Amino acid sequence: PLGGPNSSPAGNTAVATLQDVMGSDTWVGRSNMINVARANLNRIDAKPNVTSGADLSALGFRYAGTNATAAGLPFLSVNGFFSSGDAQQPFATRTNNVFSASDDFTWVIGRHSYKFGGELRRDQIRVSFINRPNGDFTFTGQYSGSAAADFLLGLPIQFRQGSGDPNLDGPSWTYAIHGQDANRIGPRFPR
Q1: ∠ CA(35), CA(40), CA(42), 5° rounding?
Q2: Please, are residues 76 and 134 in contact by the beta-carbon 8 Å criterion?
Q3: 1 pLDDT more than 50
Q4: For residue 74, which of 131, 132, 130 has the smallest C-alpha distance?
Q5: Cα angle vertex 100, ends 97, 106, to 5°?
């Protein structure tokens, strides 16, 4: 399972800074004309899972972690008894930046209500998503009939460890425009 351990090493913490700024301006040209402009910036700068930093070789393990940024303990799952270790899939870093600007204009002329507008948006995400950098061991009782005994004997049913480039840098631009003419057919029909 990808859930967290029921006992976690010291130092396994999450740190995040969230920032939101928004500005808006409403302009009334005449009693039948209004414009609303908005701009905002959202930012997340996070280290969602800071691993313990434990050195696998100093603890007697005969393999190395695959990413020094997420150094820590392997995840151990002893079915029916306990799970322990650092996060299996820690984010080493995460930065999201979203900038958005929009404008909406409404003009009412007689039976017509014209609405025009648009939005421009810039999204950027930078993530270092590391998959099982310190490995994970699963003990089920496959060999001795008891998961705890398999753990004490050092006989896991599986060992997994990920590698490869964990970095993702994905910027994008999106835009939208709209136009509408709401026409009132007669005095008894609302817009």
Answers
A1: 160
A2: no
A3: no
A4: 132
A5: 170
